[in-house]
Each structure stands twice: as C-alpha cells, then as structure tokens.
Amino acid sequence: xxxxxxxxxxxxxxxQGDTDIKALDHLSIDVETGGFxxxxxxxxxxxxxxxxxxxxxxxxxxxxxxxxxxxxxQLGKAALADLRLREIGFVFQAYNLIPxxxxxxxxxxxxxxxxxxxxxxxxxxxxxxxxxxxxxLEDRRPAQMSGGQQQRVAVARAVVSRPALVLADEPTANxxxxxxxxxxxxxxxxxxxxxxxxxxxxxxxxxxAHVPRLIKMLDxxxxxxxxxxxx
Amino acid sequence: xxxxRILFMLAWRNLWRxxxxxxxxxxxxxxxxxxxxxxxxxxxxxxxxxxxxGISALPGEVQVHNPAYLDDPNINNLIATPDSELEKKFTGAxxxxxxxxxKVPAVITSERESRGVTLLGIDPQRELGMxxxxxxxxxxxxxxxxxxxxxVIGRKLATTLETEVGKRIVLMSQDPDNEIADRxxxxxxxxxASQESFEETYVFAGKETLQKLLKIGDHVTEVVxxxxxxxxxxxxxxxxxxxxxxxxxxxxxxxxDSYLGTMLxxxxxxxxxxxxxxxxxxxxxxxxxxxxxVFERVREIGLMLALGMRPSSILGQxxxxxxxxxxxxxxxxxxxxxxxxxxxxxxxxISIVAEGMEMMGASSVxxxxxxxxxxxxxxxxxxxxxxxASLSPAWRASRYEPIEAITKAN
Amino acid sequence: xGLIFRLAWRNLWRxxxxxxxTIGAMLFSNVLLIFMMSLQFGMYGLMIENTLKAFTGHMQxxxxxxxxxxxxxxxxxxxxxxxxxxxxxxNSENVAARARGFVLASxxxxxxxxxVLGVEPAFEPVVSSVPGLVKQGRYLDSYDAAEIxxxxxxxxxxxxxxxxxxxxxxxxxxxxxxxTVVNVVGIFDSGIAELDRSIAExxxxxxxxxxxxxxxxxxxxxxxxxxxxAPALEARVQGLLPAGKDLVVQDWNRLQPGLKQAIxxxxxxxxxxxxxxxxxxxxxxxxxxxxxxxxxxxxxxITMALGLKPQRLGWLVMLETCLMGSIGxxxxxxxxxLLTSYxxxxxxxxxxxxxMAAQFNLPVRMYPRITLLSLLAGPLVVFSFSLLAAxxxxxxxxxxxxxxxxxxx
Lengths: 231, 410, 409
Description:
The complex is a heterotrimer of chains A (231), B (410) and C (409).
Chain A: E1 3-16, E2 19-32, E3 36-40, H1 47-54, E4 62-67, E5 70-71, H2 77-87, E6 88-91, H3 103-114, H4 118-131, H5 147-160, E7 165-169, H6 177-194, E8 197-202, H7 205-208, E9 213-218, E10 221-227
Parallel strand pairs in A: 3-8, 3-9, 6-7, 7-8
Antiparallel strand pairs in A: 1-2, 1-4, 4-5, 9-10
Chain B: H1 2-15, H2 19-57, E1 62-65, H3 83-90, E2 97-109, E3 114-122, H4 124-127, E4 138-140, E5 150-154, H5 155-161, E6 168-174, E7 180-191, H6 196-201, E8 202-206, H7 207-213, E9 222-226, H8 234-243, E10 249-252, H9 253-256, H10 258-296, H11 298-306, H12 311-341, E11 348-349, H13 354-360, E12 365-366, H14 372-398, H15 402-407
Parallel strand pairs in B: 3-8, 5-7
Antiparallel strand pairs in B: 1-9, 1-10, 2-3, 2-6, 2-9, 4-7, 5-8, 6-7, 11-12
Chain C: H1 2-12, H2 16-56, E1 59-63, H3 66-69, H4 79-90, E2 95-106, E3 111-119, H5 124-127, E4 134-137, E5 147-151, H6 152-158, E6 165-171, E7 177-188, H7 193-198, E8 199-203, H8 204-210, E9 219-222, H9 230-240, E10 247-251, H10 252-255, H11 257-295, H12 297-305, H13 310-346, H14 353-359, H15 372-396, H16 402-407
Parallel strand pairs in C: 3-8, 5-7
Antiparallel strand pairs in C: 1-9, 1-10, 2-3, 2-6, 2-9, 4-7, 5-8, 6-7
Helix pairs in contact in C: 1-13, 2-11, 2-13, 2-15, 11-15, 13-15
C-alpha cells in the first residue's frame, strides 16, 4: 500500500489578540492512496490548518509534509502553485467558483491552466458534469445555480483532472441535509471508481458517518483515529 | 498561449461585470485621448501655418548671404560672386527652386506719406511659387520680368500712402557710396497677403532695375533656395553649401527666424507634455478602477491561486484587463478625434482674433493638422504609462496569500 | 446634522485608497490649474505692461482715423497746449504729447527708413519706459534742440555713436521735402528688437519745425495708475476734449489690437485644456461615487427599511462628495500656492522662452502671479463639477426598493 499524504511532527501556532493558539501540535498522520478520510474537530481544533498545510496553502512552523512522495513544506510559491494544479483538487466551503465563468468553464479552468487541449477538456468536463448530475446546466453561471449545484460543480472541477488527492474543507456547510447526503454519495462514488484520495474536514455528523476512516482532532492533536464501516 | 487565452477571457468578462464603471472609464479615456489628439492637431495646424507664412516671407528654407549681411542688411554687404556666375552654379544643381534677389531697406514716399519698407529686387519668373503673394489675387498686374521698371506694393501700404495702381511713388535707398539713390516708380499692382504686416513691409521691383538704381552692376544680396519640405532642410542646406564659395554664409530658415525655429522644436515637447498631463489626470481614475476591481475580487483571486494559478498569471490577468480598457478607450478617442478633425479640414475661421494671431505670427484660418506621428505618440504614451500604472494594483493582487484571500469577509 | 455629517465622513474612509485616489485626481488638477492660471495672469500682466509702457500707454488722444493709417496730416492741432490742459485737469504728470513721422535716416555710411517720434523731453520719461532705457549718453533734455536718441540696433546698423550726425529726410505735413541734421545724444536698448531697430526720438519742437507741423502733433499719451483704472480715466479724458476737432481717445486695446487678441487666443486654448482636466476629474468622481453607492446597496436597503427617506440618502452621497471636494480644494490651494510661490520668487525658465519672450515683449524669466482669482477659480470649478458628477449616483437612490436592495449581495 502506497502513502498519498504523510505528515511528520507538524506544529503551527497562531497569535490571536494576545494569546497563542496551537493549531497543530506535533501532529503526525499517514493517509494511504485511495483513502477516504474525514478530519473532525470542534471549530478551532486545527482541521482546516492541517488541510491547508497538506494543500500547500499554508506553511507549518516545523515538521514535514509529503504529498505523493514529494516533500512540499519547503517549496516556493510557484512550485506550490504547480503542485496544487497537478496533484491536488480543492473543494471549499463557499465561493468555490469563479463568477464570470460558466459551470463548464469552471470545471475546465484547472485543465485550461494546465494546458490540456480543447477537445480533451470538452470531453472530460462533459463526462464529469454528467457524472455529478449537472447535465443541461453546463452553460449556467454560478449566480444562476443553487448552493448544491455550485458545490457539485466545485467537486467536478476538483476531480476532473484526476488529481492524486482531493481536499475538501466543510463542503456541506452551506447545504441542507438532503443535498449533503447526495454530495457525500458522490464523493464515495468517485473515491471508489477513480481510486482518488479524499481528505474532508468537517464537523457535520452526517459526513463523519459516511467515511471508512474518521480522525478526531482537538487542540491541534489527533485524539482518535477510527476505522469504521460507512453508512 | 493557452494560459493567455483563459487570462484574456477572464479579463474580458471581468471588464463587463461592472459595466457602469467600465463605461464611465471608457468615456473618460475616450475624452482624454480625443483631447490629446484634437488639441495636438490644432496646435500643429497653427504652427504649420506660422511656419509656412514665415518661410514664405523669407522665402526659401535655405538662403545664401554675405556673412555681414544678416547683422547689417546693407547694400554694401553684397554677395561677391556676380549674379550671372551664381546663375551658372545653381542651374542644373538639382535644386527644386531658387532665386537670386536684392533685399535692402528703403523709404517709400507718395504725395501724401512716407514709410520705411523692405525693397525686394526680383526676377518674377524665378519667384513663382516661392513668394507669399497670391498671384491670382493681385489688383493690376505682377512684375513681368527682371527689367520691369514698375513696382508692386501691398494693399495696406497703398491705403496708408493714399496711392493706387497707375500712380507714382518715390523709392529712396542708398548706393554703396551712401549716396541717396532715389527714383520714381509707377505702381502697377497691389498684392494681398495672409498677414497685414507683409502688406505693409514689402515692395517688389525688378532685379535689374534695382541693380541699375543702386549702382551695383551684376550683383545681388541673397540667394533663396526652396527644397519643398521645411521640416527636412539638411539635404538642401548641404547641397547649397557645396555649391557656393566658402566666404559666403549659408543659413537654414531655423537660423534666420529663431522664433519660428524654436516654435517648431518646442512644439514636439509641448505635445508630449500635453499628452502626459492628460494621461496623469486620467491615471487616477484608471488606478482607482483597477484597485476597486482587485479589491472586489479578492476571494476569487485567492481561489484561483489556491487552484494552482501562478501569481504571474494573476498579474497578467489584471494587466490584460487594464490594457483592454485602454485599447477600447483609445479606439473611441481616436475615432472621435478623427470625426471631429475631418470636418474641420476646411479650416476654422478665427479672424475674431486675427491681429492677435498675427502677433504670434499665425494667420486667421486654423487648419487642424492630424499627423500620424502625433497620433502614435499619444496612443503610445497612454499605453506605456497605462501599463505602468496598472502594474501596482496587479502586483498587489498577485501577492495575496490564497487562504487569507479566500476567507476574507467582504 | 451632526450625525449625518459624521456618517458621511466615516463612509468616506471606509475605502481610504479609493477616496485618496479621487482626491488625488482633484489635487492634481487643482494644483495644475492654480499654477497655470497664475503663470498666465503673470504673463498677460507683463505682456500688457511691457508693451504699453514702451510707447503706447493706456490711452491716446488722436485725430479720428489716425489709429488705422497713421497719416501725417491726421493731426491733433496745438498738441502741447492740449496736453498741458489735460495735465492740469487730470492733475497728473502722466500725459505727454508726441508727433510721429517716417523718415530716411542717413549716417555717413548707411541709410535706413525709420519712424521718428517728436516728444516732450520733460514728460516722455513719465509715460514711456524708453527714456529710462538709455544705456549710452543721455536722454533728450531740450524742447527744440537738433538732437536724437536712437535704438541700439539702429545705431549699430547706421554705424553711429554718441556725437555723430544723422540726416533725416522726409516729407513735411504739407507734402514738401524736408530735411534736418541731428546729433546723436543717446542710445537706448529696450531688448525688444523691433523697437531698437526702427525707432528714434527727437524733441517735439524740433520735429514741428522740420515737418512744418505748425504746433500740431499726432498723439497725446495718457497713463492711468494701472490698466484696470484706464477705462474710468478714459471717460474723463473724453469729456475734456475740445469739441469740433474730430479728436478721439483710443484705449490700449484699440492701439495694440494684437495684444488683447493674442491673450484671448491663448486664453481660449488654455481654457480648453482646463475644461478637459475638469471633465476628467468629474468622471473620476462619478465613478467613485457610483461604486460607493452600488456597494452599499444592501446597507441603504436596510436604512430605508428602517424608515429613512431616499432623499436623505441622496443628500448623504452629496455630502460625502462635498467633503471629498473640500479636501481637494483646501489641499489643492495649499499645494498650488506653495508651488506657485516658489516659482514666483525664483522665476521659471522654459525651453524656447527666449525667442517667445522676444516676440511678446516678455522677460526671459517668468514669474507667476498668485491672485485670489488664480488661486480659487480652478479649485472651485473642480469642486462644482465634482458635485454635478455626484448627482447621478445620488439620484439613483430614489429608485432603490428596500427589499430588493437588502437582498443584493
């Protein structure tokens, strides 16, 4: 079994007002390729910080981050941008889409920056949009879609170029329960079909119940690492 | 290239996201560019007229004199080379047009009045097309040949002297021995000129007649040469310099009329200053628009960075947006300028301030002159400076930390 | 009122960069306008003063029609007596009689056609700057001596120095041939090539003898304390002229028509420039205020839902513009005054100035002149246009529907 993400002894401290907050406290974690992991903690527990460190969006104070066998915590801005472009897909809580682009164009955005040819882009985006159930809505702008539809577009964009790793930060926070379930089903389906590694940060219980591996965090440390049968 | 396409598309769509702001900015840039080009064309038109008038009064872009003549325009400071020899040298030298003349100060007296004038002895055949006189607009006739022993004077001078075609006047000047040389002449023609001062100052007589009157044999005081293009006098200047004896002074019109020469030089500087001033007034609005555009889109920019777009692409995207805005504005401005200048090609009548324009040496009809190089200058300045002005907001945008930008509350 | 004012002020600084950029546009134009206008007014003032001081004066009494043709026989009869009456009546020394003729001036070696002025040596120095510009020798001092003062260039061209003789040939008032020999006693150098080349002065008495003038002259120059007071004085002089002799008072604008028109031509082209600047600033303000209104749509919706009338919000936007404009005016006036006063004490030299200066009777170094007008006119116009530009965004608020507005992102 290969390791997709490896974190060793990560530390990260924020200053908020006049108190220091330990967002990551000597945290180590391994996620195998094709894993489907949920990070959960009360807010401020460090899950977003961890996710950002893995995604190369934030630098830890100390420790090492390895993604697909490459150490990333010392890379420069441009190299990190390339890494995110080629290896990682992101789904954020909100403001996931570029408002001036249609659903299809948002999905194609990453590929276009990667330099994928028009035909290939069109083919892949069409397939993935159908897969996430947005057939017929390809030309809508984000403002013309519901929250759930917008998140589906974001998911489609995150997985369309077959990244090794998809990071999702509270993807269901703005969705109702039905839409959340549908989104999680979509995640597991994609995880199984494409062997894509998923790491999802959330405090939504419905999401936690959906994954085979649940990691609970508190004050920047892992307090529990549970293997479970998804619902 | 692919990246450029997506950047271009993003920039274009972002430009129209806030169409009111964009339209206002386009109007501002359009008006600015229009003003740059229009004002420059008017100024160039004025300078052009001034210089054309000025040169036609000289006339000729290049002149040859005895070195002492310019400071002391006296009959004693003749060109040593005899006129017939000059003729031989200049004929067939490949010059567009040239003439030898006598130009001396004189006093003209009618029965009623006297005035100080500049007396010109010319060969009318040679002067055609070089003088400021409109030959179709002469009361009476112009001189017929170099031996014509009548004179042609300006209309204004005729009024002042209370004389008219057919009447006699007396011209007084001096010969080389400072004996008063005077003679009665019949006025055969009255000329009009674009500037009243020309009509008051110049009196035309036959060259050979004057040579006899002034007792200077086969000599003249100046050779005037025209090359056709006053902006490019060097070739003519060099040709003429090679042609004449070394002890003669060859001058360009810019040396002869330093006011006009300076005007021509200063004008290009003036155009540049004017273009830059207008641009600066525009730049505040431009930078403001870009700063706002970036500020409103912090989260999107963060998102694009997080998705793996390089900071340089973000910079490029903002700069492209700014360039698109400028190009569109420039297009509007250029079209406006063209539309306003073309109908004015017949000239704008500004005779209300004719005497003031004459004081500046310009005539009272202003023909805007649209020069390609001025249009290019205005557009280039706007592009280059606009590019520089957009760098700062664009640079800021590219330096955002993706995570901070995404989570920024609006 | 206090609350609205505070609200407007704080709103302005919610986007400090935008506000400063807009104020920056105002400042730029204001400073430029103040500087340019001060420079222009300074220049115009000098052009008028220098040109008028040389010979023309603020006004002249002449025979009707003389101003156009300057014919010898268009005379002011008994010119000295009239000049002296005017001096008494106006209680001013600033009155001098003159006669003017065109002659052929011959020295031993050279002859040139020039204009000769017959002047009153006692009063000419009061009305004209030329006597003060005598650089060699002295000015005329006797009313009828055969003496002459010539311009520097003319002296050079005629190859004469102090003590040399010049023969003047001309036709007299009656058309007969006239001649005199005069002694060069002084050479003036005004720096204005046209004057230095073509003008000479002899005593009026001698002039009248030579030209058979029988006591007549051509003009009486009268100066007011300054140009602004000239029109009032002109009216008084008009009333003092003897009736029935076809005498008129010509003001400086009639005597030097090119001067005022040159100024007008220059002014109209400058005002075009200023107009463009003001329009561009207005666009800037319009843009800023429109943005600021649009991004506050939601906020405005809430305040309207709370019962505030749209008009009040409109006034708020106007007040914000007003505050911004005031900062522009105050800072602009300050900076503009600083910049301008630096140059008004140190002078300003532009490339090409020398030739331009000679053409328009100006010194080579320019000194801008700050007046209340040049200091405030520009900024106040910019201020007014900024308010005008803010009307559209302010009025837009009237069509705002509270519920829709609150829903806006």
